[in-house]
Amino acid sequence: MSTQLSLGRVARAVAAKDLRIEMRSRVVINQVFPFAGLVMVMFAFALDNDDVLTRVAGGLVWLATLFSLIIIIQRSFAVDTADGALEAQRVAGLDPAGIFIGKALAVMMQLVTLEVVLFLAAIVLYRVQLQSDGVVLLVTCVISATAGLSFVGTLYGGLTAGARGRETLLPLLMLPVVAPVLIGATRATESAFMSGGAAVSDGWPWVGVLVVFAAVFGLGGILSFGSLIEE
Amino acid sequence: MSTVVDFRDAVVVFNGFPALAEASIEVQQGEIVLLQGPNGAGKTTLLRACAGLLPIVRGEASVLGVDLCVDRQSVRPRVGLLGHANGLFADLTIGENVLFWAQMVGASNVEVAATLQRFGIDGRLSQQKVMQLSAGQKRRCALACLVVRRAELWLLDEPHAGLDASARDEIDAIIREACAAGATVLIASHELERARGLATRSVSVVAGRVVS
Question: Distance between CA B136 and CA B166 in Å, rounded?
């Protein structure tokens, strides 16, 4: 008789599998990173004003992250649906919550790596100053915002995985939902950068919003992912 | 010998259409049962219903002792469904694909190595990405995944499709070996001559009903 593993081990195996696929295919490194970098450079060209760029740097980083998230999520589910592997996982009775957490963790790790690069790019391209007071706020903001984005992305990725026209459906459904993350993360990042006269302490309430958002969608995903990927 | 599949007047509605209309079938452990019938007769629906993927609207249905009308989830870990897709991760190697499923049931590396060897996909071949494999090698890899998952009921939808003669012979040998080891197999196929040679019994599926 088959013995099924715990949610934690399913999540670990799924996350490891998704990250291994990325290491092999290097789609995120070779395509998403350059895309996000290009978005940052294009914004710099479009705005062409150092003061404005310094002020809006946080928002631009998070916008580039959101655009990249769409590609990462589409890729994450494309590798599972191409040869029916997502259905195979469903048929095998793998805990859907484990699949959800595993996929979200893999997305989270890819996004965090991307965000580190984007923030470095912002410091170089937009001449943003990051004081030591702001580092803790920025790190907390990145972790909570990334968790929220990964949970929402995985949830909507699962929802649209079997849908016709999923490439266009995913951003259409997901972007309005992640608007609170864009707003909260941008405000918190501006506070961390102390741009526009903002103080570091102004950012913490926004981090609270991000944490609540991540918790709601994390829990929602754990509870509903099974139904979303069912026929 | 125990009853593995027991459907009595089972009705499955798919897209508003009764894809299974009061279908009845009983399959004993160790049998290889061929489901034959024209396209759209309900063969695939029957396999998917056995896997607990489709709800039973009316009638009775149990698989491996689990009442599908009550619980469609708990039977799934014990069932392996291989449809037109192989359910493999194209960017991973054969070994990594088999290992993924082995992890899900806590199978050891020794068990994985033995399965790869048994299916002739060990050594250098096990290091090849699935996307680089032939159709026959992909099928063998998919069946190896069913073995390491310890599936007790194999549901195979056109397992010979797209394979050359030697690959078909290999698949047949694997299926016979699985049955000898205690698995039960339901095969939906249009390749009747070959499938009849493999099956211990064949039934026809006509307009959603099973005819012996």
Answer: 9
Cβ(A84)–Cβ(B89) under 8 Å? no
Q: What is the pTM of this model?
A: 0.90
**How close B110 comes to chain A (CA, Å)?**
17
Within-domain flag for A198: yes
User: Which residue did the predictor score with more confidence, B163 or B143?
Assistant: B143
Question: Are A2 and B103 in contact (CB < 8 Å)?
Answer: no
pLDDT score of A1 more than 70 = no
What share of chain A has pLDDT > 70, as a percent?
97
Number of H helices, E strands in chain B: 6, 10
**Chain B hits for A78, Cβ within 8 Å:** none
From A83's Cα to the closest Cα of chain B, the distance in A is: 5
pLDDT given at position A213? 97
Specify the number of domains making up chain A.
1
Residue B205 inside a domain? The answer is yes
Question: What range defines the domain where residue B13 resides?
Answer: 3-85+149-211
Of B53, B85, B100, the CB nearest to A231: B53
What DSSP string describes B114-136?
HHHHHTT--GGGGGSBGGGS-HH
| ipTM confidence score | 0.85
- Which residues touch A188 (CB under 8 Å, ≥6 apart)? A58, A137, A138, A141, A145, A203, A204, A206, A207, A210
Domain enclosing residue A58, as ranges: 7-229
CATH code of B30's domain: 3.40.50.300
Is the minimum CB–CB distance between A1 and chain B shorter than 8 Å? yes
Name the domain count of chain B. 1
Structure tokens at A38: 């290009």
pLDDT tens string A164-223: 778 889 999 999 999 999 999 999 999 999 887 888 899 999 999 999 999 999 999 999
Instruction: Tell me what the mean pLDDT of segment B183-211 comes to.
Output: 89
Q: What is the pLDDT of residue A2?
A: 46
Half-sphere exposure of A195 (CA within 13 A, CB side): 24
Q: From the list B74, B76, B86, which residue is nearest A83 (CB)? A: B86
Instruction: Indicate the burial class of B69 (C-beta count within 10 angstroms; 0-12, 13-18, 19 or more).
Output: middle
Strands B201-206 and B209-211: antiparallel
Residue pairs between chains A and B whose CB atoms are closer than 8 Å: 88
Cβ atoms of A98 and B100 closer than 8 Å: no
- What pLDDT is stored for residue A32 in this prediction? 93
| pLDDT band (50, 70, 90) for residue A47 | confident
